[in-house]
Design goal:
It is found in: Cytoplasm. The protein is an alpha/beta fold. It contains 13 helices and 10 strands. The strands form 2 sheets. Strands 2-1-3-4-5 form a 5-stranded parallel sheet, sandwiched between helices. It binds 5-amino-5-deoxy-1-O-phosphono-D-mannitol. 5-amino-5-deoxy-1-O-phosphono-D-mannitol (M6R) is lined by residues 57-60, 104-106, 109, 112, 155-157, 241, 245, 365-366.
Length: 369
């Protein structure tokens, strides 16, 4: 049932191109517009929405953090993202014009379920992004967008995460379309780019051997740090979470702009720092700033592991290890940038002799608060 792989996690990592393609399937019509029939909230209700609130836990929360960039950019609707476990305890401001998006692979996470119940009690509409048909979270929501990742068995979420991102982009594009947005041309371009992303993920998977080899050399380390900016920041958080849960290492993700506000004090000789570099095209200011960050940490002894777009030559002099990813539009980069981090964590866990599919102390779905 592991399809020839040693672990479910490896199988699920390998299934990502198909999972991404399946989640897009039938949702973009040949004319290039979006039809999301599972969204049973009417377009007129969606036009009334004045705020989006995303609630989720763990990896699904990281998908939500990335979704915020897409939703605010394409729709101009303010979007908050909150850990489901914190949400209802702070008396959040919600009403019938708030759209709450609950993201959950299992559809059974108690924290997320309680957050969505709270939102519905306040009269808000709830849209679930979920991978498990007929599970509790979609059953209790006003609308559902299923991710078509197929069953995810490994405790560490991989293919569900990529499909959650795709679903979030679809929701953002749909909201933009329904409400009319000045990004019409960009949306058409993004739809084209999304339809190519499955092949890009495949290409990333074909180049993972050096990442595995690198991971094996780090098996004795205590700490790995992750840096990112813009949508690369949640990717850094996700890379750190994967490493914590699988390799039981101290791993932390930071927004690169925060370095000088504290985290740079952690940099010492030979500490591995993974840096997710934004595209040099598009928001190139961010690219240049992060290249300076890489120089700064390297000057203080960090071993830099740089994830950068093909053709980005500016990073080459400062990268002790360079991991190439295909060029994508900025907002879509997490779909390709996360994959090496999954492989990295899986290989480190293996090198440390850990149980990859069943990390200690963790359950696949957390059905208690
Ligand atoms: O089933 P859910 O998506 O609601 O689960 C949320 C988290 O428990 C889950 O993503 C967890 O963080 C994973 N083990 C991360 O790999």
């Amino acid at each position: 049932e592991k399809g020839g792989y040693d672990y479910f996690m490896l199988k699920e990592i390998a299934e990502q191109p198909k999972a991404v393609a399946d989640t897009l399937l039938g949702r973009i019509d040949p004319a290039g517009s979006l039809t999301l029939d599972e969204v049973r909230i009417s377009p007129s209700e969606l036009r009334e929405i004045d705020k989006v609130v995303i609630v989720a836990c763990g990896t699904a929360f990281h998908a939500g953090l990335i979704a915020k960039y897409a939703i605010e950019h394409w729709t101009r609707i303010p979007c908050e993202v909150e850990l489901a476990s914190e949400f209802r305890y702070r008396d959040p401001i919600l009403d019938s014009r708030s759209l709450v998006i609950a993201i959950s692979q299992s559809g059974e996470t108690m924290d997320t379920l309680m957050a969505l119940r709270h939102a519905r009690e306040q009269g808000s509409k709830v849209l679930a992004i979920c991978n498990t048909n007929g599970s509790t979270i979609p059953r209790e929501s006003d609308a559902v967008l299923y991710t078509h990742a197929g069953p995810e068995v490994a405790v560490a979420s991989t293919k569900a995460f990529l499909t959650q991102l795709v679903a979030c982009y679809l929701v953002a594009l749909y909201l933009g379309q329904v409400r009319g947005t000045k990004w019409g041309d960009e949306i058409q371009a993004v739809i084209k780019d999304l339809s190519r992303i499955s092949e890009e993920v495949e290409r990333v998977l074909e180049t993972m051997e050096p990442v595995r080899a690198l991971a094996r050399t780090l098996a004795e380390k205590d700490t790995v740090l992750f840096l990112g900016r813009h949508v690369g920041y949640p990717v850094a958080l996700e890379g750190a979470l994967k490493l914590k849960e699988l390799a039981y290492m101290h791993a932390e993700g930071f927004a690169a702009g925060e370095l000088k506000h504290g985290p740079i004090a952690l940099i010492e000789e030979d500490v591995p720092v993974v840096v997710v570099v934004p595209s040099p095209r598009g928001r190139s200011v961010l690219h240049d700033k992060i290249v300076s960050n890489i120089q700064e940490i390297r000057a203080r002894g960090a071993r830099t592991i740089v994830i950068a777009e093909e053709g980005d030559e500016a990073v080459v002099p400062y990268a002790d290890h360079l991991i190439r990813i295909p060029a994508t539009p900025t907002l879509l980069q997490p779909l390709v940038a996360t994959v090496p981090l999954q492989v990295f964590a899986c290989e480190l866990a293996t090198a440390r002799g850990n149980e990859v599919d069943q990390p200690r102390n963790l359950a696949k779905s957390v059905t208690v608060e």
